[in-house]
Amino acid sequence: MVMTPRNHATLLLGTAVIFWGWQTGWLYLAALPGGSLIVLSMNRRKTTISPETYQKIAHISIVISIAVIVWSLFLQKDEIYVMALLRLSPLIWMPLVLIIALDSATRLAPDIFFSKNKTPVKKTKSHGLPKENWFYWFFFAAILAAGAAQNPHAWFFPGAALLTALVIEPWRVRQVGRLRWFLLLALAVAMGYQLQNGLFSLQRSLMYHLPQYLDQWFFKSKEDTNRMQTDIGRVGPLSLSGRILFRIFHENPLSRPLLLSESSYDFYQDGGWNQTRSTFFSIPPASPAHAWVLDEQNPIGEQTQRVIMHLTMASEQGLLLLPAHALRIENLDVTLLEKNRFGSVRYRHGAPGQPWSIIYAPHGNASVQNHEFTETDLLIPRAEKNGIDQVFKEAQWDGLSKEQVIEGLHRYFLEHFQYSLNLADHSRFSTPLTAFLLGSKRGHCEYFATASTLLLRRAGIPARYVFGYAVSEPDSQKGWYLARQRNAHAWTSVFINGKWRNEDFTPPDWLQKVNNDLTAWQSMLDLFDAARYTVSQWIQSWTQEMRLAIPGIGLLGLGVFYFYRKSNQKGLRKGNPRFRENTENTTSPGTAGTRSPFGAIITHLERTGTARHPAEPLSAWILERQRPELLDLLRHHYQWRFDPMGMSEHKAHRFKQEVAAWLQQEKNLHRSD
Amino acid sequence: MKHLISRLLWRGAWRITAWSHWFSQSLTPMGKRVAAGAFLAAIFGINTELSMVYQVFSLLLSLFFLSVIAAFFTRVTLEGYRTLPAQVMVNKPFEYELHLRNPSGVLQQDVVIFETFPDPRPSLEQFVQARQEPEERRRNAYDRWVGYYRFVRLTEKNRGIRVAMISLGPLDPHGEMRLRLCATATRRGGIHFSGLLVGRADPLGLFRRFTRCHLPGMVLAVPEAHPLPQTFRIPGGRKHLPGGITMAVHVGEQDEFFALRDYRTGDSPRTMYWPGLAKTGKPVVVERQEEFFTRHALVLDTLNHVPEAVFEDAVSLAASLAVGHEPLDTLLDFMFVGLKSWQFTTGRGFGGSQRILEILAHTQPHGDQPFSRLANLVLSQTKRFSSIILVLIHWDRDRESLIHSLRAMGLPMRVFLIQDDQASPTAVAPPHKTWPGFHVLRSGTMGHGLQWS
After folding, report:
1. Whole-angstrom Cα distance, residue A113 to residue A94?
2. Among the listed residues A314, A350, A308, the one whose alpha carbon sits nearest the alpha carbon of residue A329
3. Nearest Cα residue in chain A from B35
4. All residues at 6 or more sequence positions from A422 whose CB lies less than 8 Å from its CB, including other chains
5. What is the 3-class SS of A349-360, one letter each residue?
6. pLDDT tens for residues A88-144?
7. Nearest CB to B63: which of A174, A188, A239?
8. How far does A275 lie from chain B, in Å, by closest CA?
9. Local structure of A535: helix, strand or coil
10. What is the ipTM of this complex?
11. Residue A485 burial (10 A CB sphere; 0-12, 13-18, 19+)
């Protein structure tokens, strides 16, 4: 059965409505209208709906819209009202859609809903838009509303892509085959997926870096690495990106996640961690070239391990990711390497794309952090004090040794807390952290790391918050591991027995939960990333000469292609007998009067008299100017401009001469005047 | 400063209309929906952490982007020529032929064609001058200041024609196709075609790429002529002229043979029919009837600033009178338009109405000239015609004076005054209630047929 455009649009709209219900969790609301639309798309409608009924339905929609606006603005508190309004918008237009679908008329004009006149609106064959046009607009409205779901399903993107593909399919150009259409569509979907990942990362990055840039700009701060803004306090689901950030090679297989720290922080306030008194000191370069010694007192021995990092460095400056007890860095092509007392190692002017090695002692006692602590490492913010005190008393950790407190803290979090990326409203508590400790007992690594740091401080143990990445996912090549954006992690650094030690209090199932929602799409994108990585590795292996030669070859290829296209076009023209005849015997006609010699006469007449109105024919204008002798030349001018066969060379030459003679005559006349 | 602002507004409208034109031509209906969807998704999905709407944006933007890229590989080249009618009537759909040939060896499908015209966007001067038109007063202050609607109206007026997009069926390799296209001229005068845009959407069907085909052409759009009422007679029509007036060249009274009768005392010897006397022996006279040939003059008043609709209705009425009187046995021999006069013999057989239409097609208002000059021109030539029809666009002392003068000469006459509904009352009341030959017509009602009492 061949489906009419209207039925096709109705079917897709019904499906989109059900998709909206599925994504928003309101399937019970969407099932009936969506199902009705699907059923209607399979039947031939015979019902005729009067304009009065349309207007009554429009009134119902207005009432629903008022209710939805009031609810979104005043009654719900969980989200921004615009999003709530968008999510609920199908409820507003659903009655209109149903009545349009039920009506047998093929066209519909918008005025049918709002006509104040009680007399029936004239319905003619050509009046209004075809129904399918309406349905396509509602279709996109349903998809947008589904995207505004509070707890979107992981299948949102594939579902939206599939429905969009079905909508645009009837517009497929028949000149190309279905396969090419499908490949192009698949490419567009893959691009869309990458783009949405990129947008998400961009926003995260902006949210992270923008305050630092603003801080730098307004307060002229030289340091941009001394603050870490966490997601503590955010409500709702936390979406994590699966984008691959870097790859590492580890000599021995990793039995547990390797923690690569970027920096540690000592001062907590309003969901952000800061470094106080952070001054960077340069690390002198060692030999051979591009080698840097982080700890001179601990020599490299058998117990040390080597990690090769493949991470694209920022060109200006950035922080290195280092495992605990890092001793030495090799092959790091930077102009300057600095470190501060928090273990942040900052580079300047890094060479992008070059892998470098880190040698570290997995069980050593060396630390990039200084072997000292300050009063700030024991500070508990006033806002968090009550919550921390309450937990500490409940857990009965008073009087325990430091090791016992650490062990108790591990057990306490493991037994009473859950790792979660979906965070509840915390408005009943004084701070989000207090809500985490005393209320929900659910949170992500930033909550666990912050809470444990402050609880340890409450026990008199100096502690710091550490940010970095936990690497554990093997790559396709043996010995290589990859780190995604979602592997970003926070943990605690504890000062015990005169040295800083890493303690991760986040429940160990966090990695599994984080990786749970990795989709099949991610696997496909990983393939793209692997290909990109291979190509970039290959390009890195080019010699300097090759790097110079390749763009030249590309340009040469483009030039050859351009000339090939040009010569092809010429060939086509030569193959056209009509064109050949024209080029042999005639002068090419001018365009829009600009190339015709008569243009000079027009200019002259305009300069010496009244201008010609745009709609006034040249002949009438010339006669009005009392210049009938120009009519013959005008005829030649029209031939020059409009005759598709053009004008013979001889005639064109004579025409030019006559025009020149007339102009000369005019000049002489003016002189004599 | 004022000029600078006008220039900025004009430049802005120039750009916006260019984008709008490009948008409407280059995007397919589904492409427009995808673009609009992406735009809305960009607004609602600006915060990627609030919702998944940004994913819709990414998807639609990628589709659109790939469509644009893919469209650059969908070049279509066609050759062709157009057969246009010489004359068309304003606001009446007309048909013309387009012959197309596929020069390539590839079957061409889903090809669309747009007719193109010389850039119709108004010049700065035209844009600024249009501000003084009476329609401006009907707009709100913001519209008057920005003037975008004015720019659009002038653009459409300059283009002067409406032609819809044409979707072609499959065109075989090296095949030919003949299309009958329908267009409507929306203004009088010469309407120039510059060429064709031949294009096809990308494989996804969202974005079109065009190639330009240079194909100039021109049609002359003459004013719309409305049917005259059945009862309408031009004043002073001839009566009982045997043999018709096809070749009549006389002006005024002329004697024509009617019958023979016996001589009666007092008959002029000049009327004696001598062959009859010779045959019958009785004096017989030729009875002749006084005949009256009328040569009409048509005066079209263009000498006042009036709304464009009023002026166009006046021109349209003049055209209706010029071509609509053909079933009647009259001659429209003189025409006064603006400050010019033309003489041509028309009526049955001469086909001069075409020339009248050509003149009317190019008629423009001359609001800056006094009506007295036209009045003097008409009065100086009254001996050359026997009746007159005046189409006026305004009523004042000068026009009243002309009417009085013509009536004093005993010249049969009909006067049509076209008035706008919102025209302010004139100082002198039109005499349509006291004089049956004076008709007041409301502007905008011409389309319903010329009806007057």
Report:
1. 14
2. A308
3. A140
4. A151, A236, A237, A238, A442
5. CCCCCCCEEEEE
6. 999 999 998 888 888 887 777 777 776 655 444 444 445 677 777 888 999 999 999
7. A188
8. 27
9. helix
10. 0.70
11. middle
Contact present, B252 and B271 (Cβ < 8 Å): no
Determine, for residues B49 and A184 on separate chains, whether the beta-carbon distance falls below 8 Å.
no
**B62/A203 touch (CB, cutoff 8 Å), yes or no:** no
In this predicted model, which residue has the larger pLDDT, B217 or B50?
A: B217
- Which residue of chain B is at minimal alpha-carbon distance from A588? B214
Encode burial over A83-93: b for 16+ CB neighbours within 10 A, e otherwise.
bbbbbbbbbbb
Residues of B in contact with A206 (CB under 8 A): none
Residue tagged 């009768």 (tokens): B261
CB pairs < 8 Å spanning A and B: 182
Q: In angstroms, rounded to a whole number, what is the distance separating the alpha carbons of residues A284 and B268?
A: 143
Q: Is A161 on the interface with B (CB under 8 A)?
A: yes
**Segment of A455-464, A526-535, B435-444 carrying the highest mean pLDDT:** A455-464
* A290, amino acid identity: H
Question: Tens digits of per-residue pLDDT, A159-196?
Answer: 999 999 999 988 888 888 889 899 999 999 999 998 98
Q: By CA distance, what is B213's nearest residue in A? A: A644
Task: Please give the C-alpha separations between residue A60 and each of A57, A94, A96, A323, A484, in angstroms, as whole numbers.
Answer: 5, 10, 9, 64, 50
Q: Which long-range contacts (CB under 8 A, 24 or more apart) does A26-33 make?
A: A29/A91, A30/A90, A33/A94, A33/A97, A33/A98
Tell me whether residue B299 is exposed, middle or buried, using C-beta atoms within 10 angstroms of its C-beta: 0 to 12, 13 to 18, 19 or more.
buried
- Return the DSSP state at A612: P
A613 touches chain B (CB under 8 A): yes
Q: What's the mean per-residue pLDDT of chain A?
A: 80
Global pTM reads: 0.57
Interchain CB distance below 8 Å, A171 and B204: yes
The closest CB to that of A171, out of B28, B77, B123, belongs to B28
Phi/psi at A527 (nearest 5 deg)? -65, -45
